[in-house]
Design goal:
Length: 422
């Protein structure tokens, strides 16, 4: 079910019209639906079926404390990539035995902190890191649980900037060395080898790369078993793609090009890989971020002015690449719709922000419902990798964040003030 929809001609988040929120709290404003987050998480959990499993939410997608609390209270685990994220996870109530720690550059102090907290395991990305974790564990008189992140050299067929499973990528241990690194890891007395980790990329929209990865993982586990190395845990990463075009359909809105209308749901992805992975007999953890929070959030922005030259029409809004970086960084597509529909007329425009950079755009040559200065627009599907990637560039305070639950509204991060800029 979609919790961000038009009721009559007003875009609402659950029971609350976004216009009311924009007028009360100002713009730019991130608004999230609590029930959408819960539903997304629970349907992933449900799709894992009877397997001994855990859905670890990847904090990097959206690390707002209130959102983390919702997922922690619902039993989710956490995938963290820094001491900071580990702190945020623990602080929000994720229990340490459900936390995994990934990332290619873990510092010794971060490893020490994670060992003190007794997290479930480190997803180790190289031999050098095996040595570091082993050294820190020895020094602390502890045994560190680890899984090896293997880079299977499989093309996730996503944007190159968010593809992580190719040999040319910095992530993981290369497949051709995997067997010997596993053999080496079991020989280190301060480590307890529990499993294997893969994460081949993000916004993956086809099942095939996942199927190839699952077959690779199970094959490697069997090979290791024949050599006396018994793994009990698979962490299959995240990466399930979500639909960015036609996130909302309304007869007054321009028909969007629909390249991603046929994206499998996270449940479809899981249905394709579960039988393969289950055959290993291992427990199965996944680390989705985007598929839990992306469609639960919108960025509401106000039109500051409209400017036309002989080749283009620009709709200039009060939010920019400092608030939402994805279009500038990955040429990412986000549907943009009026918060209140009052016309069926459309026009081709660039929707741009106030930042002094030509990359400061949300959309180029986009058919948009005709809009005017002062009106509010919603940039859809911005619950993941939205606020977390925001910055103070150009002296702009970070936006406020609001959580809606039915007819209840809560400010979950107040708008940053100018004084807080420094
Ligand atoms: N696990 C690991 C080890 C990861 O590196 C990531 C994402 C995830 C899980 C979660 O992946 P998800 O389910 O969200 O696809 N900023 C980019 C996305 C970067 C993803 C980085 N790693 C964007 O806005 O598209």
């Amino acid at each position: 079910m979609n919790y961000i929809t038009y009721k009559e001609n007003n875009l609402t988040c659950e029971d609350i019209p976004l216009k009311e929120l924009a007028e009360e709290y100002g713009t730019p404003l991130y608004v999230y639906s609590k029930n959408q987050i819960t539903e997304n998480y629970r349907s992933l959990r449900g799709a894992m079926g009877e397997t001994n499993h855990l859905v670890c939410y990847a904090l990097k997608a959206n690390a707002n404390h209130s959102i983390l609390k919702i997922l922690a209270a619902d039993g989710a685990g956490a995938d963290v990539v820094s001491a900071g994220e580990l702190y945020l996870a623990l602080n929000a109530g994720f229990t340490q035995d459900k936390i995994v720690f990934a990332g290619v550059g873990k510092r010794e102090d971060e490893i020490e902190y994670a060992l003190k907290q007794d997290i479930f395991c480190f997803n180790v990305e190289s031999i050098a890191e095996l040595h570091t974790i082993s050294r820190v564990a020895l020094r602390m008189g502890k045994k560190a649980r680890i899984a090896l992140r293997i880079n299977p050299d499989i093309d996730a067929q996503s944007h190159p900037y968010i593809t992580t499973g190719l040999q040319s990528s910095k992530f993981g241990i290369e497949a051709s060395k995997a067997f010997e690194v596993f053999q080496y890891a079991v020989s280190l007395s301060s480590l307890e080898l529990v499993g294997i980790h893969t994460h081949i990329g993000s916004q993956i929209t086809k099942v095939e790369p996942f199927i190839t990865t699952a077959n690779y993982v199970v094959g490697l586990i069997e090979k290791l078993r024949s050599a006396g190395i018994n793994l009990t845990h698979i962490d299959f990463g995240g990466g399930f793609g979500v639909q960015y075009t036609n996130a909302i359909v309304h007869e007054a809105l321009p028909k969007e090009e629909t390249p991603d209308n046929s994206i499998p749901t996270p449940e479809d992805f899981l249905k394709a890989v579960l039988p393969i992975l289950q055959s290993s007999g291992c427990s199965l953890w996944i680390e989705p971020g985007r598929s839990i929070v992306a469609n639960a959030g919108v960025l509401v922005t106000q039109v500051i002015s409209i400017k036309e030259n002989s080749v283009k029409k620009f709709v200039i809004v009060d939010s920019g690449m400092n608030d939402l970086l994805r279009p500038s960084l990955y040429q990412a597509y986000h549907q943009i719709v009026p918060v209140s529909i009052d016309t069926y007329e459309h026009e081709k425009v660039d929707i741009v922000g106030p930042i002094c950079e030509s990359t400061d755009f949300f959309a180029r040559d986009r058919m948009l419902a005709k809009t005017n200065t002062g009106e509010y627009l919603a940039v859809l599907t911005t619950g993941a990798y939205g606020f977390v990637l925001s910055s103070n560039y150009n002296g702009r305070p970070r936006p406020a964040e609001i959580l809606v639950n039915g007819d209840r509204v809560r400010v979950i991060r107040p708008r940053q003030t100018m004084e807080e800029l420094g």
